[in-house]
Protein 1
Amino acid sequence: MDSRKRILIKGGTVLTFQSNILVCDQLDVLVEYDKIADIGKNLVPSLETEEISAKGMIVSPGLIDTHRHLWQSAFKGYASNWKLMEYLNGMLGDIAPKMTPSDVYNGNLLGALEAVNSGITTIFDWSHIMNSDEHTEAAIRGLKVSGIRAKFGYGTPGTSVWEWFFESKKSHPVNAYDIKKKYFHSDNDLVTMALGIRGPEYSEMSVTKKDIAMGRDMNLQISMHIGGGAFGPKYQGIQKLHQQGLLGSDLNFAHGNTLDDKDFQLLADYGCSLSITPEVELQMGLGLPATGRAVKHNVICSLGVDVVTATSGNLFDQMKIALQAERAIQNEKMYQNGQMSEKLTIQDLDIFKMATIGGAKTLGLEQKIGTLEVGKQADIILIDVDKLGIAPYSNPVSTVVLYAKEHNVDTVIIAGKIIKRNDKLVNQTIDELILECRLNSYKFMEPSNEKLATEKL
Ligand SMILES: [Zn+2]
């Protein structure tokens, strides 16, 4: 018997899409085990149903982060003043080789919990810290212990950034086959597998071709970084993938800042998905976020945090930055043409879609998650709108996109299981984990920072 119960979420403002139509209404949501069993007015609970009052709350599909390197979660602020090359050298060059399996476990668990705490119910963990089988096991265990729904993107070892990330000649590790066999047995599990490959901007084309063939042989979604700063025009990755006949709907790309219109058209034509991570892109010199161009070309697109070494770990900030950065881009274009813009062409609703159903489509999970619909998985968040900073609210969409923060997320349910309730994570000992992450992260610091660490201790 499944330990999960029936849960009736009563009296909230349900904010979702049903068959692509926006729903915003006072409704009850009935959860039975891992699925949404009913949505309607004045649903009556049976005897065995736990009732959750959602009065004064928005009831939303869980948010979906489609691109993050969770293993870096213990290094907040390390990259806050770095550009991309400094990040590659500092994080992948210096820190990654020193990571132990225990560090990876702690990072993944901490990162997944901070994601859940902020209303993210599904995450794509792009894990390029596969230094040994023990590292791999630790990363997967961290995800599983957190209770989050995840795609584990099995990446390359973090043992040498030069060998693995600078026009690499090395193919993706073939023990991906063993990892799949050992840890991933069903697409119905909460944590499933994908492949995080280097792609044409970080490995030779012959390597990319081989890596994609391996992912397809294993029937896995394949993700890679593309169009990041000068690498975009230099390597012409999308065009090369097209010339080799490699584009397909199983390919996911992160960033896409410096792709051109022809590239976006190809992404749309082949059903490839794009994960936009606006905050880190703006900081690290990847280029302007591709949000507007992706929407204009009807590319399947969504949002991600990418690295908490430089940014916050919630999707609320990414939603807000994506929206306002795109508005700035479009307004600036008008001014450059000597015109005053009269109307904004991208709306908060476009961004809410990207963080929910867009995320589900990006991960190929739209039949399961991304909206609140009967028969879908019960991945639901309750956002308390009666707190200072968010109250009084008038528009539920703008409330989620522009005002909500972690502390407004009252309840998180994933696959019918309550992970957060009354603004507290359930059954997780956070204080010890944070302390362990803090103490372990000091060993990676430069000598000057070690002094600071000692002083703090
Ligand atoms: Zn990334």
Protein 2
Amino acid sequence: MPTEPVARFQIELTRFVAADGAALPPLPDFATDEKLLATLYRAMVFVRAFDAKAVALQRTGRLGTYASSLGQEAVGTGAASAMRPEDVLLPSFRDQAAMLGRGVTPLEMLLYWGGDERGSDFAGPRQDFPISVPVASHIPHAAGVALAFKLRHEKRVALCIFGDGATSKGDFYEALNMAGVWQLPLVMLINNNQWAISVPRSTQSAAQTLAQKAIAAGIPGEQVDGNDVIAVRDRVGKALDKARTGGGPTLIEALTYRLGDHTTSDDARRYRDDATVSPHWHEEPIARLRQFMLAQGAWSREREEAALADAATAVDSAMEEYLATPKRPAASMFDHLFATLPPGQASQRTELGDA
Ligand SMILES: Cc1ncc(C[n+]2csc(CCOP(=O)(O)OP(=O)(O)O)c2C)c(N)n1
Ligand SMILES: [Mg+2]
């Protein structure tokens, strides 16, 4: 039977800085901007310090469950730095790097994870969405936000971040499909940290890349080294520009690695050993950018010490403010859910009284 190929595709991977910090030219112009590189570096150092403090607070009973982004700091840092203030971020539960980068305060983040809903009422990026804990459920919301921008002829883009596991869900495929059909100003960014709790990427999907899932929806998909903040900023920035100027959506798969537990409720030693995890420490984003900057003569021991000290001071002061914030009454958990509470919840609220 005569046959002919009717569709061909390939998936590109972008990396500008090798795991050892070596430059892989040609680099984007901003890679020579020492001030910008220092800002990205300090942002990642801050997120790492913040994560460590949040885990310590949880361990001592002063914070709820927390999902550290250890090893994945470049994904959100690079993405947020490429966004414009008027764009809208729709984050998952592991996206503190992106949220802090957008201007959500460390105090707001701590309040949220401490169970205080005021933590989602950001003073900064008012139209950014709150954290989505239900996996992938915010991707259709992101398509909706992008559709609103398109209908209103606003030059704004929705950026949605989610995990490798989320790409197995119907919500993802449905949003992807509509993004293609409606050519939405939407950037979908996968933080492929290789794990969905205990499920490794190898058993998550038989697809060779997660990026290629975009092809079926008629939109471009690509991979980026998610441990290379320069590459993330560049590729997300290009996708945002394209979406902003009517070029439609992009799916970007950022390849990184979850160096820590899934959350504070998890003990990853039960399903993966040190021999599996430790090689990935050689690829992590902070040391990589530091090596790169040192090689360019753009970093020094003094700057390193200042970055670490400034992060520690800022994290400590956010923690103190958080611990000094009076607890909300338990009944406040019912506020802001419905304009009018359904009867079941109304009676639960009455039962709690002012507690
Ligand atoms: C709809 C839904 N199902 C199950 C869960 C429980 N859960 C929380 S995180 C997670 C795995 C998510 O993996 P991935 O999308 O790769 O994100 P990661 O945690 O690695 O950042 C699961 C199953 C949930 N939060 N929401
Ligand atoms: Mg994952």
